[in-house]
Amino acid sequence: MMEWIQQTDGIWQYVILFVLAAAPLLDVFLVVPFGVALGLNPMAVGIIGFAGNFLIVLLFGFFFKQLSKWRDKRRQKKGITTPSKRETRARRIWERYGLPGLALVAPGIVGTDLAAILALSFGSSRPRVISWMAISLALWTIALTVGSVYGFGYMDLI
Predict the structure, then answer these.
(1) HEC profile for 101-150?
(2) Which of 14, 31, 85, 117: disulfide with 21, CB 3.0–4.6 Å?
């Protein structure tokens, strides 16, 4: 995959990173360090990683009801009645720290897309979920961009 992105030119590398960031379960935790490791502009990689990930949060927020119905039917078809480990972990965080805690911790344990769905299913309002996920995603994106730049820069010194 890395070779494929390196073979593309200019803006297409950023387009591919945007698509990867928008893919469910691929968060800024993967896309930002990947883009920085490729030698792309860290500021652009951070913005694109945030935008791609936030697009999915917005889509999940706006289409939550339809997504929830589809997911429930799919789970019933498969005979799944108990929540997954990720859902259980997210529920514990939710009960202890509420929406802000879930939004700030979730990208590291369950991903922003799943965290948004879980927060909505736990009863939070759509505007609050989208706002807290945006704040959390911005903080994580900044931290990962800075960490990647300095981390890879430190590796060059070795």
Answers:
(1) HHHHHHHHHCCHHHHHHHHHHCCCCHHHHHHHHHHHHHHHHHHHHHHHHH
(2) 31
Would you state the pLDDT for residue 158? Answer: 41
The answer for residues whose C-beta is within 8 angstroms of residue 72's C-beta and 6 or more apart is none
Structure tokens of 141? Answer: 């994106």
Q: What b/e readout covers 72-109, taking b as 16+ CB neighbours within 10 angstroms?
A: eeeeeeeeeeeeeeeeebbeebbeeeebeebbbbbbee
State the amino acid at position 47 in one-letter form: I
> Counting Cβ atoms within 10 Å, is residue 65 exposed (0-12), middle (13-18) or buried (19+)?
exposed
